[in-house]
Design a protein that fits this description.
mainly alpha, globular
C-alpha cells in the first residue's frame, strides 16, 4: 500500500490519458473494438436508416437533431468519466472516512484497480454506451451507500426514489441491467451475504432457474441467445452452449459461468491475454470476498444481489465471448468494490480489536 501515494495515482491518470488519446484519435482503436461506435455515429447523423437501432443510438440521433451531438465531444466526456470521475466516485463510495490513514490507502488502491481495468477503459474511447451506464451505476452506488448509512427517513426515501429513477434509465439502455438494480434495491434489506447458508441459497437459485426453464419462462432470454449464433457464426467467438435440454441445464449454466464470467474459455490468443489481465485478477478478488464474507455489510449485500441477478440473466442470454467481455464489466466492478469494502472492514475491526486489547492490558 505504501506505493499507492498521490504521485502514483497521478501517473496512472496521466498514462491512461495518453492511451486514451491514442485509441480515441486513431482508427486502430475503432477496428480493435468493432463497428458498434461507427454504427451509432452513422445512425446519429442520418447516414444510415436501416437496421435495428438501440435506445442508445436513438438517443444520439435525438441529440443530433437538436444540435448537441458531437462524436469528438462525447468521446472526450466519456474519457474524463473513465479516467477520473468513475474511479473517483467508486473509491469515495468504498471508504468510510477519507481523513483516516487506512481509508486513504484503501481509496488510492481502489482508484488504481478500477483505473487499470482494461476493457472498461477501451470502451470509453468512443461513443459506446458503457461509460454512460457505468457512470449511472456508480451514482446509484453512492445513493445506496447513503441509504445504508442514514437514519433519516426522508433522506432514505429520496435516495430510494433517485435509485429507482437511475434504474429506469439503465433499463432503457440495457433492460436486464436496470432490472437487476431494481431487484437489488427491493431485496438487499432482507439478505445477508455473511449468512452461512450461501451454498444452499445457490442450490435453491439454480433449482429455481431450472424450474423456470422447464416451464418455459426463460424462453425469451434463450431466444435472444440464438441471435448470437447467427450474427457471430463466422467470428469464431461463439461458445456453442445451447441450453437445449433441462437435464443438462445446470451443467450448461456452469459452463457458461466458467467460460464467460471467469473467462476460462480460450478461443484465441486475445482471450488468453484478457484472462491474464482481467479475469485472473477478478478471480483473486472474488475468492477474497467469498472467504472473508463475515466482514461484509449492507452495501456489500446490495452488490451481491445485483451481481447474482445481472450475471444470471446475461449468462443465459449471451453466447459470444467478445460480448461477454462488455457485459461482465458491471460484475467485475461490483466485486472490486466489495473487495475493498470487506478489506477495509477487516482492517478496521483488527485495529479496533488491537486498541481494545491494549486498553485492557493497561488497566490490568
Amino acid at each position: 500500500m505504501r506505493i499507492l501515494n498521490g504521485n502514483f495515482v497521478a501517473c496512472i491518470v496521466l498514462s491512461k490519458t495518453i492511451f486514451f488519446l491514442f485509441f480515441s484519435m486513431s482508427d486502430y482503436g475503432f477496428e480493435f473494438l468493432g463497428s458498434d461506435a461507427n454504427y451509432y455515429h452513422k445512425f446519429a447523423v442520418n447516414l444510415i436508416e436501416e437496421g435495428s437501432p438501440t435506445n442508445w443510438g436513438i438517443f444520439l440521433h435525438k441529440l443530433n437533431e437538436i444540435g448537441f451531438y458531437s462524436r469528438f465531444s462525447i468521446t472526450w466526456l466519456f474519457g474524463f468519466l473513465s479516467i477520473v470521475a468513475i474511479p473517483l466516485i467508486m473509491s469515495m463510495v468504498v471508504v468510510k472516512d477519507i481523513r483516516d490513514s487506512i481509508s486513504k490507502k484503501i481509496f488510492a488502491a481502489c482508484f488504481v484497480v478500477i483505473s487499470l481495468y482494461p476493457s472498461f477503459f477501451l470502451y470509453s474511447t468512443d461513443i459506446y454506451r458503457e461509460a454512460a451506464m457505468v457512470f449511472l451505476f456508480s451514482l446509484c452506488l453512492v445513493l445506496v451507500k447513503k441509504i445504508t448509512e442514514s437514519k433519516d427517513g426522508v433522506v432514505i426515501g429520496v435516495c430510494y426514489f433517485m435509485c429507482i429513477a437511475i434504474s429506469g434509465v439503465l433499463y432503457i439502455l440495457r433492460p436486464y441491467l436496470g432490472f437487476s438494480m431494481f431487484i437489488a434495491l427491493l431485496f438487499f434489506n432482507y439478505y445477508r451475504f455473511s449468512w452461512r447458508i450461501q451454498k444452499w441459497l445457490l442450490v435453491a437459485c439454480l433449482l429455481c432457474l431450472q424450474v423456470f426453464y422447464m416451464l418455459g419462462y426463460l424462453n425469451p432470454i434463450l431466444s435472444y441467445r440464438d441471435i448470437f449464433f447467427h450474427e457471430f457464426i463466422n467470428a469464431g467467438t461463439n461458445l456453442g452452449i445451447t441450453f437445449n435440454s433441462w437435464y443438462y441445464f445446470v451443467v450448461d449454466f456452469a459452463n457458461s459461468f466458467i467460460s464467460q464470467l471467469l473467462g476460462m474459455r480460450f478461443l484465441n490468443a486475445l482471450s488468453i491475454v484478457v484472462f491474464i489481465f482481467e479475469s485472473l485478477p477478478f478471480l483473486i478478488f472474488l475468492l477474497y470476498v467469498v472467504v472473508n464474507k463475515q466482514y461484509s455489510d449492507k452495501f456489500v449485500d446490495f452488490l451481491v444481489i445485483f451481481f447474482s441477478c445481472y450475471s444470471a440473466i446475461w449468462l443465459l442470454g449471451n453466447d459470444n465471448l467478445g460480448t461477454a467481455i462488455r457485459l461482465r464489466i458491471f460484475n467485475y466492478l461490483s466485486v472490486y468494490v466489495c473487495f475493498f469494502v470487506i478489506y477495509q472492514n477487516k482492517l478496521l475491526r483488527r485495529v479496533s480489536f488491537d486498541g481494545a486489547s491494549n486498553e485492557s492490558s493497561l488497566c490490568n
